[in-house]
Amino acid sequence: MHLTRIEFTTAKEFAKAYNHLDFLKRLGNPCYIETGDCRSRAPVIITTLLHGNEVSGLKAIHSLLRDDFTFDNPVVFIIASVSAALTEPVFMHRMLKGQVDLNRCFGKTTVATEKPNPQFILAKAISDLIVQYQPKSVVDIHNTSGSGPAFAVIAESSISNSSNTKDDYIDLASHFSERVIVTDICLGALMEMDFNCPIITFEAGGTLDSQSDYHAEQGIINLLNTDKDGNKFGNLDVLSCPRRVMLKQQYTLIYTSELVNDIDLCLRGDIEHFNFAHTPAHTHIGWTNKDIDALLKTDSEAIKASEIFYSENDMLYTKKQIMMFMITTRADIAATDCLFYFVET
Ligand SMILES: [Zn+2]
Q1: How many domains does the chain have?
Q2: H or E element: which one contains 341?
Q3: What's the CA-to-centroid distance between 117 and ligand 1, angstroms?
Q4: Residues 123 and 136 in one domain
Q5: What is the mean pLDDT of each run of 10 residues along the chain (345 residues)?
Q6: Domain boundary at 210, 240, 270, which?
Q7: Other CB atoms closer than 10 Å to residue 116's CB: what's the count?
Q8: 142 in the same domain as 46
Q9: Are residues 98 and 231 in the same domain?
Q10: Which of 106, 116, 223, 273 has its CA 20 to 30 A from that of 2?
Q11: pLDDT > 70: what percent of the chain?
Q12: Distance (Å) from CA 48 to ligand 1 centroid
């Protein structure tokens, strides 16, 4: 698989003639749009739509092109999961049914032994294209599922392989958000790659939040107009080494306002309100009548779920003061990917 090159003038014509959905239909395939002189200056690379239901980055690119925004820096926009995004109902599918998550396919050494898998091939095509450009920086724009604030994510694994420092990564993040997470979790995400430049994921906010589109567009403008400067967030809140909390495979999940019999884990329907909040110990977050460690696990062998949560009379509580984030109420995504991340505070 390769990425189709769309000429900048063509992309602008599409953006002016169509809304973001029809614009994407015209693009048709995984593609990239280059503008500025990428041969004399290293471009900024903006990737988006690695997940077909996370649309803020696409909307931002569409609106910048439509409004004739001028860029001080050369830039390459890469738009990835076009067919997943366009599958009805549109902008609802993280990836096509039966396929693996594209943002878990980067840098995997198992690629050669996998039977040909279109997601691995697309991930490789995106990586190869980025390498060709020798970029100045890479920003991968996503949304969290549901509702929540914007934040940037930096992967320790990328920093440790890079000649750039952690501060270079944090400087890049500061164009997008005042909140930065530095993670040691390796999932095969694009941000874990080393392109010999700083790379971040920007979670522009929830797919349901209208301001997410604004955050994505404003972040791109802040980054691309660095010659004008003065548009960075100061005093960044940096959270390190979050852990993932996952539901074990065989169990069922629902978001609700009360205990539902026959469902193994019922999480509060308003749990998204805890996103990035300091959540004290003994906060009620749901219901279960299962043993905590039988039901839940973290991504760390060293941390049992029962160290962080407990149940009493079928009510599920936090055991420690924690900050949770990337909380979703999309049960399908939560059950297959993760319920949320947390740091102890
Ligand atoms: Zn995503």
Answers
A1: 2
A2: strand 340-344
A3: 19
A4: yes
A5: 92 98 97 94 97 97 96 94 97 94 83 71 96 97 90 94 93 95 94 96 94 96 74 86 94 95 96 94 97 96 96 97 93 92 94
A6: 240
A7: 8
A8: yes
A9: yes
A10: 223
A11: 96
A12: 9
Output the CA 315–ligand 1 centroid distance in Å.
31
Q: How high is the pLDDT of residue 226?
A: 66
Q: What is the DSSP string of 246-293?
A: EE-TT--EEEESS--TT-SEEEETTGGGGBT-EE-TT-EEEE--S-HH
The candidate with the shortest Cα–Cα distance to 246, out of 196, 313, 304, 165, is 304
Question: Residue 179's closest CA among 240, 137, 138?
Answer: 240
CA of 189 to the centre of ligand 1 (A): 10
The answer to whether 71 touches 158, Cβ cutoff 8 Å, is: no
- Which tens digit of pLDDT belongs to each residue from 42-83? 999 999 999 999 999 999 999 999 999 988 889 999 999 999
Separation of 245 CA from ligand 1 center, angstroms? Answer: 17
The residues pairing with 266 across neighbouring beta strands, listed in sequence order, are: 254, 287
**Which range of residues forms the domain containing residue 45?**
4-240
Domain of 177, CATH number, reads 3.40.630.10
- What pLDDT sits at residue 112? 54
Q: Please tell me the pTM assigned to this model.
A: 0.90
In the reported structure, the alpha carbon of residue 103 is separated from the centroid of ligand 1 by a whole-number distance in angstroms of 7
Other CB atoms closer than 10 Å to residue 8's CB: what's the count?
15
Encode pLDDT of 256-286 as tens digits. 999 999 999 999 999 999 999 999 999 999 9
CA of 140 to the centre of ligand 1 (A): 9
Question: Are 177 and 29 in the same domain?
Answer: yes
Centroid of ligand 1 to alpha carbon of 25 (angstroms): 20
Using the mean position of ligand 1's atoms as its centre, give its distance from the Cα of residue 42 in Å. Answer: 26
Q: How far is the CA of 22 from the centre of ligand 1 (A)?
A: 22
Cα of 78 vs centre of ligand 1, distance in Å, is: 14
Residue 50 Cα to ligand 1 middle (Å): 6
Same domain, 249 and 206: no
